[in-house]
Write a structure and sequence with these properties.
- By secondary structure, the protein is an alpha/beta fold.
- Helices cover 37% and strands 19% of the residues.
- It folds into three domains: 4-53, no CATH class; 62-159, 3-Layer(aba) Sandwich (Rossmann fold), CATH 3.40.50.620; 170-344, Rossmann fold, CATH 3.40.50.
- It is elongated and about 75 Å long.
- The chain starts with a strand and ends with a helix.
Length: 345
């Protein structure tokens, strides 16, 4: 049975671009012989001479789009890439609107915002016949004139945002040793945000373990899976404008980086705030309310973070808090200041 790997939305789009002839090189993919998307749908199989690509339901091939437009009598239609021009009166009677949304899921804010902008053109009273097509293009990998030509059109113009639209949502992701104070501070931050009228959801490590990740153990693979599940749920909340507060240990830098990428792909740059609760190990052990460190020192708990398993301290945290000698309110206010700063940028 071939080794299967799951691809991100961006990787699926890269496979589609390669398959459609919009990019020459075979995309850089993770190890494995077969690949599927986030929903488990087969995408491609690795072969000796490259990739054998399955039909990818979301993405329509440029040749197919061009053929269908020709059947409608659209010969070399004017193509516009991205959001419509500020002055829609420059648009002709027929427009092939191409939305470059590579790497985003079908229900992402970028797709919704792009489609809504063209809906506004229709609502303005202009007699414009539109065909709206989400495309896999990733600027500057694909020149917009070449993209328009691939879909059978002639480039009229483009208005492409340099990065995904920000939804206004945020993920506040606490990381630190057991007993560092993550859950306590996170809980107070949630209270302060609710008092301010924000829509906020708390994804506490212990509660997620009980519900979302029931059945997972404490091997590195299972812990990574748990953190990625938390990150995915948080990204969905932020994508729709809410605030997610997460408080796992999340000891590994690579997994935290994966969560950051997922969140920012869904909710835009700056939507992920990493909070390192940097309380020293000695202080965490002194608290040890659950007796976990004592058991780990006796060898009763294998692979315990900070004792028999590493904790990779962040080098990319937006906020660092050492709770030693500080009260919860002061720590929570420090974090909240960073959240508010991110929401008004």
């Amino acid at each position: 049975m071939p080794a299967r790997s799951r691809l991100s939305d961006a990787q699926v789009a890269a496979v589609a671009r390669h398959h459609f002839g919009l990019s020459a090189p075979v995309p850089d993919l993770p190890a494995g012989d077969a690949f599927e998307d986030a929903q488990g749908v087969p995408v491609a199989v690795r072969e000796s001479d490259g990739l054998a690509v399955a039909e990818i339901p979301r993405w329509r091939s440029p040749a197919e789009v061009a053929r269908r437009l020709a059947e409608r009598g659209w010969s070399a239609p004017a193509a516009w890439v991205g959001r419509p021009p500020a002055d829609a009166t420059q648009l002709p009677a027929r427009v092939l609107a191409l939305l470059p949304v590579a790497g985003t899921p079908a229900d992402s804010a970028a797709v919704s915002a792009g489609a809504a902008a063209w809906a506004d053109v229709r609502a303005s009273g202009r007699e414009v016949e539109l065909v709206l097509v989400p495309v896999t293009a990733a600027h500057p990998e694909v020149a917009w004139a070449d993209l328009a030509a691939a879909y059978g059109g002639t480039l009229l113009g483009e208005r492409v945002d340099p990065e995904p639209a920000r939804t206004g949502g945020q993920v506040l992701f606490f990381t630190g040793l057991s007993g560092a104070g993550k859950s306590t501070i996170a809980g107070r931050v949630v209270e302060l945000l609710l008092e301010a009228g924000s829509a906020v959801t708390l994804l506490d490590g212990d509660e997620v373990r009980h519900h979302l990740s029931a059945g997972l153990g404490f091997s590195q693979q299972d812990r990574d899976t748990n953190v990625r599940r938390i990150g995915w749920v948080a990204a969905q909340i932020a994508k729709h404008g809410g605030i997610a507060v997460c408080a796992p240990i999340a000891p590994y830098a690579a997994v935290r980086a994966d969560v950051r990428r997922e969140v920012e792909a869904q909710a835009g740059r700056g939507s992920f705030v990493l909070v390192h609760v940097a309380t020293p190990l000695t202080e965490c052990e002194a608290r040890d309310r659950k007796g976990l460190y004592a058991k780990a020192r006796r060898g009763e708990i294998p692979a315990f973070t900070g004792i028999s398993d590493p904790y990779e301290a962040p080098t990319d945290a937006e906020v660092t808090v050492d709770t030693t000698g500080k009260d919860v309110e002061a720590c929570a206010r420090l974090v909240l200041d960073a959240v508010l700063a991110g929401r008004v940028q």
